[in-house]
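U., I forgot to send this yesterday:
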Amino acid sequence: MASTWTLASLTLATNVTVYQPGVAFIPTPLPAPGPASNFEEIITQFNRLGRTTVWNWIKNITFEGDTGEPEGMVNIGEERYILGRGDWSEKTVSFGKNIIINGTDRSPGAGFAHILVYDSKGKRVADATLTPPGDIEYHIGGIEYDGQVLWATLSQYRPNTTATIISIDPATLEHKPIIHYQDHLGGIVHDTEANRLMTLNWGARNASLWNLTAVVSNTAPSPPPPPSSSTTIPQFSTPEKVVRNPSFYVDYQDCKFLGHSRIYGSRAVALCSGLATLAVNVTIGGLTLVDVETLVPLSEVPITLTSALGTPLTQNPFDVALVDGRLRLYFLPDQHNSTLYVIEPEVNSPYQY
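Result:
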């Protein structure tokens, strides 16, 4: 069960477009998060996977409307699917080969961060715009649901810049800034037992750990970031620690907290999905169980499946759940016209290698 604590920040106005009036954004009472509900069995079944695993396609759900660039996803009992979506009104522009200005390699660009809610058939329920025009932190990264709130990161769409960690009320889609940080942030998980966040930077090369009890009790959250025309820089928070990712197998795109697993000596464990281009025309994707405290990989498996459009399944967001006692994975790889691909490993398949 998620830890109980009080957010000490001002709720920001959110522009919400409702497509199904009278339909709740999320079931009530708030359900438990799927990945953490049966995490030991999820870990047990994950550790049976391998390169020769046979995958069954359980169902495909086409999401209505333009999904933009989906970066994070939460599955709520297959009744609701919540996406983090980015829209770009102005693309970032490279400063040139090997040119770095103020620690980064491109212009900020412009756009909007959204939270989208879909029903079980892929029909839109609501679309919440989280960022105002002119805000430079418009890129939403991975998202996490902990049974109480949604967690997300809003960042500049370029490395080595700035980000704000926000919480989102799933019932209203109103959001609150919690932490402002001097780096790009993408994936995020909430260790509900330790009340700690783990966030990933650009390419998931570093993880930052945040003690939420200390953040909420001892400090007021930083204000929202300034618009691109402002020269004022708000105060930044310092994480409890930053750890280097020791694995270069894939760059994690989205992660889900599982729990403190007895299988791994009560370590806090998350499941992360991603991909990396290692050479020209060589892109690999996969899933990794990681130690939340160290980012050390505990178990990993490649995923070579692609969407109908040829996109690797592990590009962009994912989620995981245990359904009827079976490990089930959810992927949304394609931009703009997105189909949710739901897969399970073959029943009674032989030991994988």
